[in-house]
Amino acid sequence: MEVYIDGKFYRKEDAKISVFDHGLLYGDGLFEGIRVYDNCIFKLDAHLERIEYSAKAIALELPWKREEIARAHIEACRRNGIENGYIRTVITRGVGDLGLNPNNCGNPSIIIIADKIKLYPPSVYEDGMKLITVPTRRTSVAALPPMVKSLNYLNSILAKIEALNCGFDECLLLNDQGHVAECSGDNIFVIHKGKLITPMSASSLLLGITRAATIECAHELGIPVLETTMTRYDLWNADEAFLTGSAAEVVPVVALDGRKIGSGKCGPLTAKLLERFRQKVRTDGTMVK
Ligand code: PMP
Fold this sequence. Notes:
With 289 residues, the protein is an alpha+beta fold. It contains eight helices and 16 strands. It starts with a strand and ends with a strand. 4'-deoxy-4'-aminopyridoxal-5'-phosphate (PMP) binds next to helix 6 and strand 13.
């Protein structure tokens, strides 16, 4: 494997950054998780736009043009023979001293790792996933807006620990007001009376690329979409529910906190959206070859 760091490719063993990088010392940086399907990088431009927005939000000036970063992603896939897989992009504030001050850091660094991906087994897409609501609340938009895909992921990790301790792979996080926010690494949707409903961005969530692609699919299928404030009541009374994420794609959610959602099986509109999404990933990408 060859890893891209700041304009050069290094063998995996030699791909290293400084222990004084503020990405490591403070989680001061950003990342992305991007899928590659059949030699096409899915929604690369949307991911690069999210990096730009996140960078603006944390006052990190990116010294690279979008096209330059895009080319490096394509090259990382080519060199590693990734026809189907996953790209992890990491941007750090750069090397500084032991103080917080980001102005003492030199140049930001960019790391691109193109690798294979381990997927959920097919049974998850047929039988669905059960979720648990965890006590940890999603970071407030007034603290660290979760729209920023920052290197500081402890909020999600604490939630994940709580879920795993209870025997669940994924969980539901509420925001500081008790509204539904999202899952530890995925966004959440419900279907109610034929309408697709999902928490709005001010509810404290990452604006997922898969979330946006799913909303696109709904528009294409003529399913009305509502982005709003949601509580657990909306999940208890949903006809269907599912989560979305670059790794997960569209996964049916069949229970929350031991309560069955809808029929307790993958619902018909969820199945339709998953099918449409899987068509979209083959038609909406940046060619690697
Ligand atoms: N929410 C969180 C907290 C995430 O980390 C992710 C990405 N794993 C998502 C939602 C889904 O985002 P995307 O569709 O861009 O992968």
